[in-house]
């Protein structure tokens, strides 16, 4: 960093001119747009919806409320706005509220400049230090946000309580010339929300009856979950009226975007990712689980299903595959469909169930969502097993095998079964799947671009897909899946998913 002015006189000679936070944000945004640079790095799926709305709000100099369900990158976007601030700004040395040397507002800064003039020392504040974030909780007080009189300061300085120098400034005045974010705004008590009126409308504060005029310069950003309006609280109408732009966020509209976000946010150790390969099929299935949860009658849709579900689910699948490899003494492995059982804790901890879901139980709902994901992804990658069976019956015995590509597999399980333990070594897993007639041939015929490792994964996927479509039976035992005839599976009592469906 080049040498910056250290006194007020040096600052004046440098040609520095004060400008507001909103002017900084607007100017730097315009520069980014002209340079063809994105507003945010690592935010996907908002390019034609949320981002243009945010850009318009910044250009207009508006305070902003990001309204959306959990896990929609609201806080991340708010934090990223810091990059639109100037890298360094001058501050009067010792100022609690980041006074601009050429536009001081606090008593301390004004007195210091009056005393020292151009010799007034200044420091420089980096943009990362100009961001303040507060989670709204019911115990937040006006003193926390705005400030209060400080008896210790009064005693130390031997000042009367009527002297404004006894004031201890809260978070908002200390955010002067910066960005202040309140997360989950509806959780803030109404009387505390009232305290924000003057700051948003007039830019000043009132503390304990002091007649202060502090024209604070702050970019306010709020976040809120629509669920909160009915469950815990609400943004009171007068405050909502003073927030100039309310921007709605949303979940990724496609599985591809969801996969991109999940891969970006994955925090698995590098060693783990070297040991475990996760084919795209599994990544698609994990994203599909989230989509099914967002549409499920057992899940509270107003609460939402965070992107953190898919991130945790993928990390769990990778860990399950790694654990198997470690126990089997294998240096490398490929994640399997059976490893998806490891996502159940990630689902049960991240979805809010409605009454019907609570009655079924969280684990049962999680297995139901997993089954739906397999069923619906399978339907998009292979011929419909139910339609194939009906078509084969209509065509007669001579043409059954050509009309129903699954017939050889189904006939095999009419008289035999196979077990796929979650902990099976790679060699045993391969041998079991290759022993099923027509299974790998079906995969190669439909998806001939797959390498050998992925062919085995897809072969396992076919078995689970046929079970979800009730063409073969599947019994989930402790640490293993047994595939056999449908009647045996029904008699074993493994009908949870069918009951839920």
| Helical residues, percent | 40-55%
The main pleated sheet reads as: 5 strands, parallel
Detail the poorly predicted runs.
none
CATH architecture call of the largest domain: 3-Layer(aba) Sandwich
Domains (count): 3
Distance between the termini: 63 Å
CATH superfamily of the largest domain: P-loop containing nucleotide triphosphate hydrolases
Radius of gyration (CA) equals 31 Å
Strand content: 5-15%
Could you please say which CATH topology of the largest domain applies here? Rossmann fold
Shape field: elongated
The level 1 CATH classification of the largest domain is: Alpha Beta
**Helix- and strand-based class?**
alpha/beta
Q: Please tell me the overall pLDDT.
A: 89
Strand order of the largest sheet: 4-7-8-1-9
Number of helices: 27
Q: Tell how many strands the DSSP assignment holds.
A: 14
Could you characterize what this model shows?
The structure is a single chain. The chain is an alpha/beta fold. Helix content is 48%, strand content 12%. Strands 4-7-8-1-9 form a 5-stranded parallel beta sheet, covered by helices on one side. The protein starts with 7 loop residues before the first helix and ends with a helix.
């Amino acid at each position: 960093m080049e040498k910056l002015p250290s006194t007020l006189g040096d600052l004046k000679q440098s040609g520095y001119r004060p400008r507001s936070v909103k002017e900084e944000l607007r100017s730097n945004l315009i520069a980014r747009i002209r340079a063809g640079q994105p507003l945010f790095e690592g935010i996907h799926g908002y390019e034609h919806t949320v981002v243009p709305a945010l850009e318009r709000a910044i250009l207009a100099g508006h305070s902003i409320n990001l309204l959306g369900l959990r896990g929609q990158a609201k806080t991340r976007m708010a934090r990223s706005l810091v990059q639109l601030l100037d890298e360094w700004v001058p501050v009067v040395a010792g100022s609690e509220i980041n006074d601009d040397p050429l536009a001081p507002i606090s008593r301390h800064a004004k007195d210091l400049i009056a005393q020292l003039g151009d010799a007034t020392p200044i420091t420089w504040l980096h943009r990362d230090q100009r961001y303040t974030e507060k989670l709204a909780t019911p115990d937040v007080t006006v003193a926390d946000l705005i400030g209060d009189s400080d008896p210790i300061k009064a005693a130390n300085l031997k000042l009367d309580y009527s002297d404004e120098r006894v004031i201890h400034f809260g978070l908002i005045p200390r955010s002067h010339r910066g960005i202040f974010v309140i997360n989950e705004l509806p959780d803030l008590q109404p009387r505390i929300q009232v305290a924000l009126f003057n700051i948003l409308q007039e830019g000043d504060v009132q503390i304990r009856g002091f007649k202060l005029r502090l024209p604070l310069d702050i970019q306010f950003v709020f976040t809120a979950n629509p669920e909160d309006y009915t469950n815990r609280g609400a943004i009171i109408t007068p405050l909502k009226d003073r927030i100039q732009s309310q921007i709605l966020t949303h979940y990724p509209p496609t599985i591809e975007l969801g996969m991109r976000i999940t891969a970006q946010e994955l925090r698995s150790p590098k060693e783990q990712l070297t040991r475990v390969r996760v084919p795209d099929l599994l990544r698609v299935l994990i994203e599909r689980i989230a989509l099914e949860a967002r549409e499920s009658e057992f899940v509270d849709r107003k609460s939402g299903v965070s992107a953190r579900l898919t991130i945790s689910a993928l990390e769990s699948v990778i860990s399950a595959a790694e654990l198997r490899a470690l126990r089997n003494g294998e240096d490398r492995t490929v994640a399997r469909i059976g490893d998806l059982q490891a996502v159940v804790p990630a689902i049960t901890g991240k979805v809010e169930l409605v009454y019907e879901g609570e009655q079924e139980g969280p684990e049962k709902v999680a297995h139901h969502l997993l089954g739906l994901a397999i069923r619906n992804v399978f339907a998009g990658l292979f011929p419909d097993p139910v339609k194939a069976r009906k078509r084969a019956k209509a065509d007669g015995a001579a043409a059954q095998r050509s009309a129903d590509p699954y017939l050889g597999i189904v006939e095999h399980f009419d008289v035999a079964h196979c077990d796929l333990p979650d902990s099976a070594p790679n060699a045993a897993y391969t041998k079991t799947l290759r022993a099923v007639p027509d299974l790998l041939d079906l995969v190669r015929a439909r998806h001939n671009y797959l390498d050998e490792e992925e062919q085995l994964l897809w072969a396992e996927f076919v078995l689970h897909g046929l079970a979800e479509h009730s063409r073969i039976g599947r019994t989930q035992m402790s640490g293993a899946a047994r595939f056999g005839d449908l009647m045996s599976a029904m008699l074993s009592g493994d009908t949870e998913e069918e009951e839920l469906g």
